[in-house]
Amino acid sequence: MVITTTQFIKDYRDVALRWFADGLENLSPLQQYQTLALVVKGYAARDWARSKAHADKTQQKQVYYFSIEFMPGRLLASNLLNLGLKDVVDAGLAKLGLDSAAVYAAERDPGLGNGGLGRLASAFLDAMASTGMAGNGNGIRYRYGLFEQRFVDGYQVEVPDDWLRDSYPWETRKENRAVIVKFGGHVDLVPGASGHLTAVYQGTDDVLAVPYDTAMIGYRTGTVNTMRLWAAEPTAERAHALAETARAGAITEFLYPDDSDTAGRELRLRQEYFFVSAGLQSILTHFKRTHGDVRLLPNFVAVHINDTHPAMAVLELMRLLLDEEQLAWDQAWQLTVATMSYTNHTLMAEALETWPLGMFQDLLPRLAQLAFEVDRRFRARYLSRFGSVLVNRAAPLQDGQLHMANLAVIGSHAVNGVAKIHSELLKTTVLADLYQIFPDRFSNKTNGITPRRWVQLADVPLATLLDDVIGTKWRHQPQALVALRSHASDPAFLSRLMAAKHENKVRLAALIQATLGLEVPADAMFDVQIKRLHAYKRQLLHVFGILEHYLAIKKGAVRPPRVHVFGAKAAPSYRYAKAVIRLINAVAALVNADPDCAGKLAVAFLPNYGVSLAEAIIPAADVSEQISLAGTEASGTSNMKLMATGALTLATLDGANIEIRDAAGKESMAVFGLTEQEAKALRPQYNARERYERDPVLHRIVDMLTDGSIPNIESEGREIRAELLDYNDTYFVLADFADYLAANRRLDALWGDPVAWAKLATENIAASGRFSADLTVQRYGREIWRVLPEQPV
Ligand code: 26Q
User: Fold this and answer.
1) Is 679 found in the same domain as 697?
2) Which residues, including other chains, have CB under 8 Å from residue 543's CB and lie 6 or more apart?
3) Are 719 and 742 members of one domain?
4) pTM (2 decimals)?
5) Test site for ligand 1: of 259, 533, 574, most ligand atoms within 8 A of the Cβ
6) How confident is the model over 83-90, as a mean pLDDT?
7) In this structure, is residue 790 part of a structural domain?
8) Residue 201: its H or E element
9) Same domain assignment for residues 148 and 103
10) Distance separating alpha carbons of residues 773 and 777, to the nearest angstrom
11) Per-residue pLDDT tens over the stretch 680-699
12) Which domain range does residue 438 map to?
């Protein structure tokens, strides 16, 4: 797209006048931003329309990524970068006398997800557009996103995220594409003239699903795809009653703030069916208009199920093919399986979704009938070959519950995990039985990240340096970063790299000062852990490491200065996670106020972690804490973002950490802790209390939780101590403690040799290209969605 600065200035003034009937000097920063967003939306509009028309005309196969969460992050800078207009616009804003930083900062960050899964979905949309694939998102337009987190007396306080209050300029409401979604009532199967059974619905509760489309602009490709989010509204007949508005709208009112607990709540089930049904209806309508014959569906459409939340898509597509398209069961089933694919994101047993059949039947009677039939046929087909024990465990219906992961595997032609170790563990643990039956369906697709957002946009000092040293090819092909390896021993380059890092640290230090009123030394080692707060992710182990450092300082030890940076939200109902938040804040208060620690040790827990805060923290990190108990973190993606900006990883051999080590080289990572196999072998004989009694440092630290050494954590300290000693330390914090300290001392030693440190940072950046989401979606595209040709061998 070619726009001159002069043209841009004219467009900007025009839009400001048209929308606000005012001169620029009277616009608030929010209005300045909104004006700019509308201008940019206009610039992308032609490509958007053209991409849609082109896909239809050429009958390009479409991918639909169904996800109950999306976290796109702020779009203004990213859209400008991808359109190639960022420099022109920045120059134009400057000429207009506007403060471009303030304009960008006025954008709200839509928090329509909890964490890794939602961010991955958005990274994939960005990557699909940037590799020219026709890939669309299908999800929910929550009226309130994930809560805003504040700290009051060290406690997490949740404030509603009213993200739509000022309107969201990137979305376009498509009333003409609204569909009806039916809940409840009952279904009769009435034989028609042709002998085919017709499903007749009675007494259903109908809700209108209205799509809001947002452009997903590819990086310099001209491809613009669509993220379609659905909002619930009353149907026309019922719209007059105010109570109805409230009731229908309730479905898309808020995002569930848990990312592991699946307590079967009816509203959640409604949300799932709502966006699945609306999405599939609109896909089929469009498909029939462009292709005609539904029997060709899998040739032109791939539907991807992001975790089990949309797994009922299997049943809903069957319903549409049987009841609306009048296909026979076998044909409908073959089309469904060929169309669907499923990604699993967790090994945690408590996160595997099941629904009580009674609830499912009441809310979705027709889908329940189909679930029974899928279950019956599955059992009949595989019983003799695999035996009743295995088939019982693999079936969708068990003990009055519908097991969504089982349904997803049975109804998809492809199933994948999100890192090598995770995909292997799926086959031996949670999906072991289904793996016996469908071994060919299973594969690995290691997650990826978008270096455009995390390096090009968030780390300008590094990006500029890279251009200078290896040219700009890496901006299109992140794998070109390997060229950096030949500079890993060049002292001039290494000192420039550290200067870029320092610039980022100064910026983060200013943010810490502004947010927490805490002054931190920008030349200290910045040690970062940013992710949801979960027992298995072991923020507690990190805290124990800080307390050990604190005690060492008190004894006069001299170590490199460290600033520990945390970002983490806890599910509002997750007691233990909230206790750990209070502990981190209490340790921060203790350490930050202690004159003995000044200049040596500081703890900054920044509230409200999300995409925008991540953009500020990641480029400033020296150390990336990826310390989950081996065998618990499916993949992790902050590990990839942090390596891409030159942090060294302090890690267990879990999730994608293993692949990061393989890519960057053993020496470039501080590995510690039990392996997955060791942890598994230890479990039956583990005695946490014995570890506590045996290790005096550990003993002292555990005691600090309850002996008043850390003020204001009376009940939290007791709770955490009980988890460790009375409940036998589920995630082996005590077991990995000593080795964690040893790995930290190795990092300390390395810090003393800045050239060696910078060399390893370089190795990390150089190896990070292979974790580009562009490559990940291309692997999905070739091997699962079949929208790209198979790789020549
Ligand atoms: C399910 C039912 C009811 C309520 C909530 C949920 C729910 C919501 C979100 C369950 C799970 C999630 C999100 C899970 C998630 O983010 N998993 C992470 O996915 C990343 C991308 O694959 C991985 O990198 C992480 O390892 C994994 O934890």
Assistant:
1) yes
2) 580, 583, 584, 587
3) yes
4) 0.98
5) 259
6) 96
7) no
8) strand 197-202
9) no
10) 6
11) 999 999 999 999 999 999 99
12) 59-74+109-447+777-785
